[in-house]
Write a structure and sequence with these properties.
The structure holds two protein chains of two kinds.
Chain A lengths: L6 H10 L2 H18 L1 H4 L21 E2 L5 E2 L10 H37 L1 H15 L3 H12 L3 H28 L2 H7 L5 H37 L11 H8 L9 H28 L6
Antiparallel strand pairs in A: 1-2
Chain B lengths: L5 E12 L2 E13 L4 E5 L6 H8 L7 E10 L2 E2 L5 H7 L4 E4 L13 H10 L6 H14 L5 H4 L9 H13 L5 E5 L7 H18 L2 E6 L2 H5 L4 E6 L2 E7 H6 L4 H8 L48 E3 L2 E3 L14
Parallel strand pairs in B: 3-8, 3-9, 6-7, 7-8
Antiparallel strand pairs in B: 1-2, 1-4, 4-5, 9-10, 10-12, 11-12
Helix pairs in contact in B: 3-4, 4-6
Classes of the chains: A mainly alpha, B alpha/beta.
Amino acid sequence: MNDASTPLRRFWAEFRENRIAVVALAVVVLMILLAIFASLVSPQNPYDLANLSLMDSRRPPGFVGSGGYTHLLGTDPQGRDLLSAIFYGLRISIQIGLAAGFVSLTIGTALGILAAYKGGRIEALVMRLVDLQLSFPAILLALVIVALLGQGKVQLIGALVAAQYAYFARTAYGAAKAERGKDYIEAALATPLSARLVVMRHLLPNCTPPLIVVATVQIANSISLEATLSFLGLGLPVTEPSLGMLISNGFPYMMSGRYWISVYPGVALIILIVAINIVGDQVRDQFNPRLRK
Amino acid sequence: MTDPVLSVENLCTHFFTRAGVVKAVDGVSFDLARGEIMGLVGESGSGKTVTGFSLLGLVDPPGRIVRGSVRLAGTELTTLPDARLRALRGREISMIFQDPIATLNPMLTIGQQMKLAIDAHERLSRRAATARSTELLTQVGIPSAAARLRAYPHEFSGGMRQRVAIAIALLHRPAVIVADEPTTALDVSIQAQILLQMRDLARETGTAMIWISHDLAVVSSLASKLAVMYAGRIVEQGPTATLLRDPRHPYTAGLIASLPAMTKPGTPLTQIRGTTPSLLSLPPGCPFAPRCGKTTDRCREEPALTEENGRGWRCFHPEGSNQEVPA
């Protein structure tokens, strides 16, 4: 079986048993690579307006445009090659998803652990704020914040973080609260060890498994949230389309037979989100001892 | 007798709850000499654990030590500021908890945790810390200790984990260890091994121990002295052998009579009728009176401590002797 040499290797050995999860992981890695090397694999730079020709707009897949190459997935209303636009769109979606995910992970975890560790008023204040926020749909909050802050990558990430940190705070709080009451934390706190050391060495590491699970799910969520905002026209400027905006750009043409402008970016988005969620599910199952065989 | 290393006098720890004041520990006194092992026995809810926590100043609100003194090698602990108390915990007085799973951090190796426990009190090089940890693990009976330092708690069995916890408690060679039912979660043969090792360790290191347990049989094989608690008070204390042979307090007598070894095989076990009273509504006078077979009108008063030949009890109608306490 597994030789259980390191926790990481053991984790991987178990992960490998689920073939679907392995495929999903491969898809996620592939999409991340495509996003990183978008400028190398794309036939066209869709952000370089000088490259675009309106003569090529809304052409079906397989069309050979003025650039002299085949547009495998057709072109959008601005005459962009859709395949290239999807690669670049993936890059933006993944960038924003990861950035928003990690920033909300950091902020949420810090708040949740602070609340669980300190207790009393700080706990009440932080957790009631989190409860209040979780009672609103994330999309509503994000919409309001984007409307207030205006458009742009940083603003968008800010809005996503504001909408999502609460999930991390809730998870970290729950884990830390349960851990806080255990004897080893009590014992460590009864000695002259500094509180910082106790939190960093004892409390935080024991809260990580559920946080990793929430992080994978929330990265997928922030990608789809960003797509939703872009679809509603509140995301990035039209010159830098993310996947959501590409879908939105093609939407008016859906009924006139030019399905490809919306459908292909949509398919890319679905594959990415589903793949991340499958990986997240597998990670969750592996961290949950009750589901262990 | 030499000066006691730990001396507790009239210790009272009360919990101020919404339903009323719970006198969990109500006037506990005892002395502990260097290297001596005292067993603290009683039913659940008799105040054993709260007594243990009170000694280390670990009582959390709504609980509070309201009266009494705890002197550790001459230092009064009850009035010591928290920072000084923390400096003593783990170094001069340490505690072993009941649940060996919750006392170790599952994410750190045993070596890392022992290093942290050392760091809390002194600056030692990594190498010296490893050497000390290895030595102590060996002492508590963990084979190939040096290699085991790199193992995680889940790689140990329950008994081994409790040994690790004991080794950590011993790291700084404290003067006193309070062990709160450390073997309750273990099976009997492991229990016996650990008990023997603890007795040897106490003898070798001069560490005094308070062994809290509900199991009279376990404690009596280990402790040289026993204190029996009931409803927050010590109702009887004295040398183990004397107490077992010749109990004076009816409660102690009841405990001994209910030991399986004291009963003829095939007959039902003797039991003390009734249950521990709620500490919120104690009867006036002797708390054991409602369950006692010898209750008289006098028991409505609180019996004073009767002392005789190094032992003491709180009862108007002691067993064994037919002498009543003169009114």
